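Hi there, hope your week has been kind to you so far. For a while now I've been wondering how a particular protein folds. I'm sending you its amino acid sequence along with the backbone structure tokens. Could you read through the record and tell me how the tokens relate to the sequence? Take your time with it, there's no hurry, and the full record follows here.
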Amino acid sequence: MSDHRSPTAQATRATTARSLTRRIGARPTQPVIVWLLVLALIPLSRVFSPNFPSSALLTSTLILSTFLALTAFGQGLVILSGGIDLSVPATIAVAAFTTGYLSDHGLPELLAILLAILIASTIGLVNGIIVARSTFPPFIVTLATSTVAAALLLGFSAGAPGQKAPSNLLGVFASGNDVLGIPAAVFLFLIAAGLGWYVQNRTRLGRRTYAVGNSPVASRIAGINVPLNIFQVYWVASLFYAVAGVLLMGYGSGSDLNIGSPWLLPSIAAVVIGGSSIAGGSGRYSGTIGAAVLLTMLSIGISALGLSEGLKQVLYGAVILVALLLSRFARARV
């Protein structure tokens, strides 16, 4: 029996690793296109309202983009691994509700927030364990865990309408809370964008997720523990969803059990529009961030026109379909 540490085995693993690495960051032009659309939409926003563009519009866009940047990072990491995560709404709702519940029952606000994030992230732990250790499709697994978590939350809350946000969390989004003349909440967007970029591009988890999304078989040959990587992906993704849930509670001064529902489709749309392959293995977080800003600006525009929330969901669904069709067309021409 050959030794896996033999020169031949090591050379095979090195060659496989290099072939996987070459595919990282495919379609580099799409993030550029997305950001050009963002820049073009700033002056065109006047179509939505005569008060646009303005500094208030840019500030609101960046603040609202924070929530989508966080959820889209988690969703993007899962898609990069070759899966998809439908537990976004339940994770956000559990994190937001638990934060208010624990804080209201006497826990210090910071401790309540940290515990809420950890409790909500157990949904990702369950997702990761099942997906990594079974052959069940990820969308079925995550849909099932999301349904169970939402039902448990409904039962625990006894139908309560919602929870109030802790005072310090409210203060983050309070008017006049500026740092160097910039609203403090804007820095949350910069932190979310920077953290997501670092995890996806500069950590072992991010690099190995690219490889696993390209080919689980080749990744095993290259020495990657594929089940462990998939487990970590779903858990880290749920941590980002949970943070988004906590921040959404602060932004909205409270939460109800449906606080996470509007964020599932946008999280997928931002990833796909940003240039990531829905089949996994390629994509850049810079494109996802650009798409998050683009979708947020469109959402603000729709609201300024007085159109319904339902139309936003139609828009998200339409742009996902268009992005998938354009992606298939681009691959067909390669």
About this structure: The beta strands are 163-164, 178-179, 182-183, 254-255. The CA atoms of residues 131 and 137 lie 7 Å apart.
